[in-house]
């Protein structure tokens, strides 16, 4: 049983990658992939509440994130009380041999539910945050905890996790993000720049980043995702702009990434690791407060890109990347080629299938 979040989100993308890897190795394995948010009373499957919380009320979300992380024991107890009835119905119906949680809100509370039900079902955890992450992920009773980076592996050992229960798996990215599909270029005459949700602030801020990029000789694709209001705003403001295309939700992000020379985006872990896997240098221009706010450190410290807090910084970074026939851009791409943190799905699948002889 895989406990994830709804279709289209980062949790879903990671769990999809893991599930595909499991089925590739063991086609007869039965997988119950469940949107764990449905365990909450009144959940409708609508993501608007979360988006509004993290964008319009950013500081409030930050406070909520920090509070639930700091008081993780109390948070897990409340979650356990909220989900127990529905979780028991789910577990009784599916009778899982092993549970994998790809969401921090369904780790400690799931352990509590299983204890009350007197079920000895191993719970494994896949952490899909890169640097800063909620303590709700942490439960030493978990059979295995998969982590995306060596730094997080060392951190959990320092916190008292048993070495044989923590696995530095790397991040579970989808296999269609494959550097072998990257369009090879001997020379980059006009760089292709891909911009995906570069900021969670007002459209005017996004327009500022776009203007900074267009001061360079580039072909720019801007993806606004489900934010149709932003798409309409940008289309009106960029009516006469050259070499820029504004799109909403796309279903071929892997192909967009394959043709991109640079990615400009907020610090969502999935798209960051997809870019690294595709060897596309990353410029980070925004983040969700809380779980995403330190992801830039992973990118900058490993030489995979830069953090650009303003349009001016973005413009300066692009100038550096494109100078001397894109020498720095090519160097960053080589750094990304050496990354060992982008093939987590296969490792996680192997460990799960081998756990207790499954």
Structural notes for this entry:
It is a single chain. The chain has 358 residues and is of the alpha/beta class. It folds into 2 domains: 2-173 and 343-357, Rossmann fold; 179-337, Glycogen Phosphorylase B (Rossmann fold), CATH 3.40.50.2000. It contains 13 helices and 12 strands. The chain has helices at residues 10-25, 48-55, 58-70, 72-94, 108-117, 150-158, 203-214, 228-237, 253-259, 269-277, 295-301, 311-337, 344-354; strands at 2-4, 33-35, 99-101, 123-126, 144-147, 166-168, 192-196, 219-223, 244-247, 262-266, 282-286, 305-307. The strands form 2 sheets. Strands 2-1-3-4-5-6 form a 6-stranded parallel beta sheet, sandwiched between helices. Strand 7, helix 7 and strand 8 (219-223) form a beta-alpha-beta unit. It is globular and about 65 Å long. The model has no long low-confidence stretch (mean pLDDT 93).
């Amino acid at each position: 049983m895989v406990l994830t979040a709804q279709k289209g989100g980062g949790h879903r993308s990671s769990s999809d990658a893991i599930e595909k890897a499991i089925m590739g190795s063991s086609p007869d394995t039965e997988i119950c992939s469940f949107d764990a948010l449905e365990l909450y009373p009144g959940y409708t499957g609508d993501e608007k509440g979360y988006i509004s919380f993290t964008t319009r009320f950013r500081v409030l979300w930050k406070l909520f994130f920090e509070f639930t992380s700091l008081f993780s024991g109390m948070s897990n107890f409340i979650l356990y009380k909220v989900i127990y009835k529905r979780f028991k119905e789910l577990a009784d119906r599916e009778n899982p041999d092993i549970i994998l949680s790809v969401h921090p809100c369904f780790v400690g509370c799931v352990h509590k539910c299983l204890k009350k039900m007197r079920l000895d079902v191993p719970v494994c955890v896949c952490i899909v945050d890169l640097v800063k992450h909620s303590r709700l992920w942490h439960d030493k009773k978990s059979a295995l905890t998969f982590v995306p980076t060596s730094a997080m592996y060392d951190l959990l050992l320092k916190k008292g996790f048993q070495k044989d229960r923590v696995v530095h798996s790397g991040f579970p990215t989808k296999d269609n993000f494959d550097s072998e599909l990257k369009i090879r270029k001997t020379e980059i005459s006009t760089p292709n720049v891909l911009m995906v949700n570069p900021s969670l602030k007002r459209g005017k801020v996004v327009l500022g980043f776009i203007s900074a990029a267009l001061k360079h000789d580039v072909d720019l694709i801007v993806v606004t995702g489900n934010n149709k209001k932003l798409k309409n705003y940008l289309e009106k403001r960029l009516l006469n702009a050259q070499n820029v295309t504004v799109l909403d939700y796309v279903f071929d992000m892997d192909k967009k990434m394959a043709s991109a020379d640079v990615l400009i985006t907020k610090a969502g872990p999935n798209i960051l690791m997809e870019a690294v896997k595709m060897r596309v240098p990353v410029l980070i221009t925004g983040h969700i407060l809380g779980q995403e706010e330190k992801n830039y450190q992973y990118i900058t410290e490993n030489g995979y890109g830069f953090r650009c807090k303003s349009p001016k910084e973005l413009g300066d970074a692009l100038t550096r990347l494109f100078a001397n026939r894109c020498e720095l851009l090519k160097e960053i791409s080589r750094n990304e080629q050496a990354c060992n943190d982008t093939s987590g799905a296969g490792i996680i699948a192997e460990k799960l299938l081998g756990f207790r002889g499954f």
